[in-house]
Amino acid sequence: MENSESKKAKAGNITYNVMIDRANKDGTYNMYLRITQNRKHKKLKLDIRLPKQKNFNKNAEYGKWIISHPQAKVWNDLIDREISKAKEHQRTLRDTGVLTAKNIIDKLTGNDSDSFFQYAEKRAQYFFESGGYRNYKKYKTFIAKLRAFTKGQDLPFNEITAELVTNFELYLRKQKNTRHPEFTLHNNTVARQLIVFKAIMNDAVKSGKIAKSENPILDLAINIEKTNKQKLSVDEVEALNGLELPKNSTLRNYRNYFMFSFYCAGIRAGDLMLLKWCNITAEGRLEYQISKTMQKKSIKLLPYALDILKEYQTEKTNPHHFIFPLLSDSAPYAIANNDQERKTLPANIQKAMYDAINSRNVIINKGLKKLAQMARINKPLSFHISRHSFADIARKKGISIYDIKNMLAHSSTKITEAYLSEFDNESMDVSMERVFE
Predict the structure, then answer these.
(1) Pick from 196, 101, 103: which is nearest to 146 by CA?
(2) For residues 161 and 378, is the Cβ–Cβ distance under 8 A?
(3) What's the pLDDT band for 219 if we cut at 50, 70, 90?
(4) Structural domain containing residue 16
């Protein structure tokens, strides 16, 4: 049976119809309120089930949809009230500038929560379930900071003003830095929270949750400061590499991870931990996909890197086992052998994997600080410095910007130029000296 609809009740550019759908298995018919806007339809199931098709008169005048049934008047009054409520919501939504059929139904069903936190949590959950764990973590961190600012109180969208955003920023700037409690949060940490805030508000506009005019953060300028990228000199790399460390010792492992990254164009910690023996080709190349950018990399393994791999290769080496003893081969996420497979793992397993990566990274960085002391390197050595060091040494050796761009897997040479410009103090020092020769 085709859908049957009653005569329309018009209100502005919105029309309201009453309709029944195909018969249920027991022969009864559900009734719906159908709301149409610009030829787009949304329907709301009513708490009415007609015993027979003939009880519905699709050609009836307004308010006389149900006939030949003892409950006809009660049901017609119920439908009338639902349409009246829908029209009232329509007027309210029209005043806010976000009038859609979906929003009217959300109002009728009570699913129109104006809570910013509820909306933000849904966005975070979307990233969690779709494999975007990094974004999920960013959103959860932001939500926690904003909840602390509001002292646990809910935050309706209509209370988000330019003044509130400014006060939230000032609140963040007074918070202690967890790594260095003697300092407050770094400007870029504050900026990253505002970036997430802005992204959620912009998404709320796109989804019709709020009007564009209700977004006080729309034109907010957020400034990310250039940070001082630490890197090792050739002498410092050699000092680190020259430390006498027993084979299979924990500190030797930490150095191996750092140096393997350095020899492989600064592979990031997370990608290194996920490397499996199947990522090493018979031709002696490392092939993997960068999880941050999804770019595929193929790197020729130099003798230095191959020597490190030999320390972990045994007769029992399995192509599907992790190369480095950082993640468990028996963990649920270990069944995935590449980034595409990892993104199809259940969300809770992906979370467990990234939590394991983050905790191992913290441990490695603590070990690297010990190694820096042993090598008399007066720098806060961390895993990411291997990437900076590689880029700086490549620049000093005259490697082309194009090749460095590809080795670092940047999307453009402009990014590489900006990245390298932060290392170029020595060139400027030479120029300064020439001025006063």
Answers:
(1) 196
(2) no
(3) confident
(4) 4-109
